[in-house]
Design goal:
Strand content of chain A: 5-15%
Number of helices of chain A: 14
Order of helices and strands of chain A: EHHHEHEHEHEHHEHHEHEEEHHH
Number of strands of chain A: 10
Radius of gyration of chain A: 19 Å
Helix content of chain A: 40-55%
Oligomer: homodimer
């Protein structure tokens, strides 16, 4: 079985996205929030069958862990009330996609967050989506959208969320949204920087001493971390915590959203294979064809299949590790098989 | 010949660093700036012979392109007047190190910068240091120290500096300083993020159309860029500029401050070898010994020597490329040889 742990509903029906615009306009104008539009099952089917489902079939995956479009989370827009309504609308749409294709999609949620605001709404939404069958959440380490005003992930600010995630046994993908800072291109700088930053925050702190069963996924192959693994191991020492970088990798997982073979090869060479999860970010950040290979940049399954791995390692990366990281998915599949 | 293009005077005599503290205290208190202390040639010799010179000899380099300690530039502290005085003091100290060891060190300058302030002082200091024999400058893309309030490097804001650098034919290393943002560890997150961000800014813009002879060095192996080279090539296409990522590499150079063999191997495998310059950041970010190799993490010469390169490629990386990027150094060496 092949599980892609990093798919976003980037092709959501237009009325969904238009509602978000109308919601924010109403918020700015101080008028009533418009009603969420009627979106038919066929509308949803159409946006998925032309895109994700077609590509999943063409490329040969079986299942996608599916969450709302990350760049549209927009935690820096509106306030916590608009964020909560938007997260709920996005998650409800994911739930419908999952209900329509229960053998292909499994839900991961967007949380309502806002810089400088507590995590009560995020926890409320976490409880709600878990009861709906979601298996994980995306956590934005920078809800300010590129101004980085929130405390590090190891700060007590985040603890109530980590506690509840542990209670529910759901992992979190550390994933920023759009950049409102002109210095940072979203997918080319802000995403990469967030991945690197999150890892370094975890290296400076000792979060998993307090939450030994918490699992965090750092997407996009871990940003700059595997390429600079010597630096991070060395910084571990300099911080007086020899081996801490390596130890983190029992709780931290990296996906394979690295869009060329040499990058994937480095990832596999350097990082523990038990900590790597197949992901493509499809349909996502980079949609074109690599002229040097003739294949889509984000067809990361090709790179994983071509990497120097034992069958056991490859199986782990393609599904076994994901089933450990997302136990609610494993239980579901086991129940279905029984 | 082996030229290390990325060395900082991280071991400057204590009175130099103490003066900076006193300068900032006086600025805060609104009192007169204390006099710069007397530092003897022997003080300078001692701090260099125990550290950089010893390591250069042990590791086998010939020459280091030497600039003030990057993390101490502190453009987010004080104001443009204190920044100007501090840059001048730091550069004067570099000039003294160069004068004491003219066959080993060559100077690169710190510039006075301040977020939200024009680049007049930076240009004034650039003129001054070039007249003193410096061959390049460090340019901080984020003088706010981790708040990223400055416009992208492609913005007109930076043009007067680029113009003068072109006039003087000196390259710039894009290098941030300390992080005043608790989200970002300086050497583990802020440095990497700045490298990635700078490259992406250059990819979004077209700076070298306006400055075809400008040369910028992105340190620390280019941050996340080589590891994600597929993403950047793909983003090039998505920005409507196919091939732009590759074309940038005629004006953009990456150093080898990547502290393990697999990272260096990826760098060599993926990026044009004409765009890679040997550097170690020594004595710098990571000072320990890698327990997996028994050698210093930042002994990057070992990795370069072990990489799969032709003799010509290796010579280019160790000195030939640097002589193209720093023509003022090349002229000096030619004059000395004549």
């Amino acid at each position: 079985m092949i599980i892609d742990i990093h798919g976003h509903y980037t092709t959501a029906p237009a009325p969904h996205t238009e509602w978000r615009e109308a919601q924010l306009k109403a918020w700015e104008a101080g008028t009533a929030t418009p009603l969420y539009p009627r979106i038919s099952d066929d509308d949803i089917r159409e946006t998925l069958e032309k895109n994700q489902l077609r590509l999943i079939a063409e490329r040969g995956a079986d299942m996608t862990i599916f969450s709302p479009r990350a760049s549209a989370m927009g935690h820096h827009l509106g306030d916590i009330t608009t964020s909560a309504a938007w997260a709920a609308a996005c998650n409800d749409l994911i739930a419908r996609a999952v209900a329509l294709y229960p053998h292909t999609f499994v839900g991961v949620a967007q949380l309502p967050q806002q810089a400088g605001v507590g995590l009560e709404e995020a926890i409320r939404e976490l409880d709600r989506v878990v009861s709906m069958g979601f298996v994980g959440v995306n956590v934005n380490p920078d809800p300010s959208g590129g101004h980085w005003t929130s405390p590090p992930l190891t700060d007590r600010y985040w603890y109530p969320l980590w506690e509840r995630m542990v209670e529910h046994d759901v992992p979190g993908m550390v994933h920023v949204s759009a950049s409102a800072n002109p210095a940072f291109h979203a997918t080319g700088a802000h995403y990469m920087n967030a991945d690197t930053t999150a890892f370094m925050q975890l290296l400076q702190g000792d979060l998993f001493a307090d939450f030994p069963s918490l699992r965090l996924i750092i997407p996009h192959g871990g940003g700059a971390v595997p390429y600079h693994w010597g630096r991070y191991r060395g910084l571990s020492d300099m911080l007086g915590k020899p081996g801490h970088a390596e130890r983190l990798m029992s709780n931290v997982f990296l996906d394979t959203c690295v869009y060329h073979q040499p990058g994937i090869d480095l990832l596999m060479d350097v990082m523990p294979k038990e900590s790597i999860l197949f992901g493509s970010e499809m349909v996502g950040a980079v949609r074109g064809i690599d002229p040097t290979t003739g294949h889509y940049f984000d067809d990361t399954l090709r790179y994983v299949m071509a990497a120097d791995l034992t069958d056991g390692e490859r199986d782990g990366i393609l599904s076994g590790n994901a089933l450990r990281v997302y136990p609610r998915l494993a239980s579901r599949l086991a129940a279905r098989a029984a």
